[in-house]
Amino acid sequence: MSDAAIIDGKAHAAALRAQVADGVAAFAAAAGRVPGLAVVLVGEDPASQVYVRSKGQATEAAGMASFSHRLPAEASEAELLALIALLNADSAVDGILVQLPLPHQIDEDRVIAAIHPDKDVDGFSIANVGRLSVGQPGFVPCTPLGCAMLLEDRLGDLAGLDAIVIGRSNIVGKPMAQLLLARNCTVTIAHSRTRDLAEKVRRADIVVAAVGRPHFVRGDWIKPGATVIDVGINRIEAGDGKTRLVGDVAFDEARAVAGAITPVPGGVGPMTIAVLMRNTLVAAHRTAGLPYTGI
Ligand SMILES: Nc1nc(=O)c2c([nH]1)NC[C@@H]1CN(c3ccc(C(=O)N[C@@H](CCC(=O)O)C(=O)O)cc3)C=[N+]21
């Protein structure tokens, strides 16, 4: 059999961002203002700084207003909660993203709970988690929603397919399972205590790997022709003092067996940011009482 198709997340993300930019222009004409996204970063973690910068650039490229807030690594929870209260009350801010993880002195659950659910474009608040689980409109976490878009683009209707999600985080695994269930897949959620994981993966038409361990999913676990979505972003030593990004799937092995597979980098990562732009545009429509008709 020939090698898997490589799912070009970068190209999909660029197409989605172009649609969002069109939607922003139409929104501005109707509402008389542009959508706004506030991104809050606490501390100086270099990787987080890179992500926050690329989110700000994507926001401006889409024609939206970008508000960037930096707090020092030693900032108190009260300071962060006070900033969130200001952003909740600011009518120029449609979406609020607080970059995770947060320093140890700050309780992430309390911070997420402080973000108004209608501005929670990450979809992390209890209200939005509940809405997703009962099928009401709300905000869905960007990474799993981006994965669902890639899957539907590739496979069309997902109904009846066997899907396995490896990883059960609140940010990726659990919402991914909900999205696949809502699309009528038969969903298995696997995790560190799962028995006979390879055997369970071998039954799946769709494999979503979100474990955070480099090359964890092996090629001989994959059913021939399956669609493999690799959510992992792991920085490993590449020898000669350099590092490189790899996913949770042993890519070269899996691509010889799968029907289609996302690469790392250039797969799920770029979709995450494009969906964040899309969620912010949706938030602006809801706040303005305008119908949203895009993706
Ligand atoms: N509240 C919150 N929401 C998030 O959505 C959030 C967060 N916190 N904390 C950190 C993670 C990480 N994240 C990524 C987004 C894009 C890429 C991305 O575009 N990656 C490129 C490679 C980038 C590189 O070279 O480092 C790719 O996969 O091709 C990666 C990771 C969003 N996160």
UniProtKB/TrEMBL annotation:
GO MF entries: methenyltetrahydrofolate cyclohydrolase activity; methylenetetrahydrofolate dehydrogenase (NADP+) activity
Domain Tetrahydrofolate dehydrogenase/cyclohydrolase NAD(P)-binding: 141-286
Catalyzed reactions per annotation: (6R)-5,10-methylene-5,6,7,8-tetrahydrofolate + NADP(+) = (6R)-5,10-methenyltetrahydrofolate + NADPH; (6R)-5,10-methenyltetrahydrofolate + H2O = (6R)-10-formyltetrahydrofolate + H(+)
Chain sites annotated for binding NADP(+): G167, R168, S169, I233
Keyword Flavoprotein recorded: no
Pfam families in the record: THF_DHG_CYH, THF_DHG_CYH_C
Enzyme Commission number(s) from the entry: 1.5.1.5, 3.5.4.9
Residue span, Tetrahydrofolate dehydrogenase/cyclohydrolase catalytic domain: 7-122
Pathway note: One-carbon metabolism; tetrahydrofolate interconversion
Subunit and partners: Homodimer.
Protein name: Bifunctional protein FolD
Organism encoding this protein: Sphingomonas morindae
Name of the gene this protein is made from: folD
